[in-house]
Every structure is written in structure tokens, then in C-alpha cells.
Specification:
Helices cover about 35% and strands about 20% of the residues. The protein is an alpha+beta fold. The chain is flat and about 40 Å long. The C terminus is likely disordered.
Length: about 90
């Protein structure tokens, strides 16, 4: 089975190497933005619309990434995980 790749704290890494500090604000308070983006034939469906919708929540938690940056991370994550399912990608 291929290694699952994730993006955490500014870098891509194998899932089994991921560590979240116990004092991380998202861990302590549950801060986060949840958006499910369907992926068909390895292409995120209506990605700009999903990113626009998640924008207000991103501001609420002081997410400092632009839509373009998040879009690049999604596409890089997909490319880094060639065995990932093609039906959905949670962000």
C-alpha cells in the first residue's frame, strides 16, 4: 500500500510522520474550516467556488493563505498521492 501524504504546518509529509503539538490552538479549541471538494478524474470539482465559500471561515481563524496558495496545495497533495481515491478530497 502506498504511503498517504499530507500537508501540515507548511510541508508535505507521510501521514505516519505527522505530529500536532499539544498546545496547538486548533487542537485545544477545535479551530478549523471544513470543506469537502469532490475530485473527478483527479481534478477538483469547482475548486474556485469551494475556496470562495470557505473564505469567511478562513478569516475567522486567521488562516494566512490566499485562495491561490490553497489551490496549489490541493493540487500538489493530489499529485503527491497517486494512489489516492479519485472520488473525493477533504480539505
Amino acid at each position: 500500500m502506498a504511503t498517504e501524504i499530507i500537508y501540515l504546518n507548511g510541508e508535505f509529509m507521510p501521514l505516519e510522520e505527522a505530529r500536532i503539538p499539544v498546545l496547538d490552538r486548533g487542537f485545544i479549541f477545535g479551530d478549523g474550516v471544513y470543506e469537502v471538494i469532490p475530485v473527478y478524474s483527479r481534478h477538483p470539482f469547482r475548486l474556485p467556488e469551494h475556496l470562495k465559500r470557505s473564505g469567511p471561515g478562513s478569516l475567522t481563524i486567521s488562516l494566512r493563505a490566499t485562495r491561490a496558495t490553497i489551490s496549489r496545495y490541493i493540487c500538489r497533495s493530489r499529485a503527491a498521492s497517486p494512489s489516492a481515491p479519485t472520488s473525493s478530497l477533504a480539505t
